[in-house]
UniProtKB/TrEMBL annotation:
Keyword Nucleotidyltransferase set for record: no
Name of the protein this chain belongs to: Cytochrome P450
Entry similarity comment: Belongs to the cytochrome P450 family.
Species whose genome carries this gene: Pseudonocardia adelaidensis
Highest taxon above the source species: Bacteria
Classification via InterPro entries: Cyt_P450, Cyt_P450_B, Cyt_P450_CS, Cyt_P450_sf
Length: 161
């Protein structure tokens, strides 16, 4: 889950988002300086990890809702990524978006331990695609995995012409 699945599905979901927004892909092909902001935006736009659960260890209140000790709550990270109170035009893909305070790597004491590695992996993938397949296109509508928590694709078929 941590070291492999999340990164694989950021790449799948992210490349699909770029294929559906060819103008954004062309920007990225033309300007490798956008890789760092693009990585954050792809994680925000279609995050592979849609929810994480927490269990209250004591009675508490979250956003005005009482949460008794022992109750589980789910943080919907995917919904937070499209919060219009935080992001301007949240449904737009913008590879230069800055600032980008997404929660795709979680927050607080359990913030993703592998975030620095994941950022390098996704940026390296974008760079490899830029060099090898600058004209890539979607070859077929990709089937999604039926999972809810881990959002991703079964496969992503590309064509180069
Ligand atoms: C882009 C890819 C990745 C995403 C989107 C991602 C996302 C996340 C998220 C949301 C959490 C928080 C879980 C929680 O709050 O309970 C987390 C935790 C974690 N991630 Fe990642 N992750 C990615 C890649 C990686 C990689 C490559 C590694 C390891 C090489 C890794 C290792 C971990 C570990 C060990 C934790 C648990 C940290 C803790 O509980 O203290 N992740 N990740």
């Amino acid at each position: 889950m941590a070291g492999h699945e999340a990164t694989v599905n950021v790449i799948g979901n992210g490349v699909l988002a770029l294929l559906r927004h060819p103008g954004q892909w062309r920007r990225l092909v033309a300007d490798p300086g956008l890789d760092a902001t693009a990585v954050e935006e792809l994680i925000r736009y279609d995050p592979p990890l849609q929810l994480f659960e927490r269990t209250a260890v004591a009675d508490t209140v979250v956003a005005g809702h009482p949460v008794p000790a022992g109750t589980k709550i789910a943080a919907l990270l995917g919904a937070a990524a499209r919060d219009p109170a935080v992001f301007a035009r949240p449904d737009d893909l913008d590879v230069a978006r800055r600032p980008n305070p997404h929660l795709g790597f979680g927050a607080g004491v359990h913030y993703c331990l592998g975030a620095p590695l994941a950022r390098v992996e996704v940026a390296a993938t974008l760079d490899a695609l830029r060099r090898a397949l600058p004209g890539m296109r979607l070859a077929a509508e990709p089937p999604r995995r039926p999972d809810f928590v881990m959002r991703g694709l079964r496969e992503l078929r590309l064509s180069t012409c």
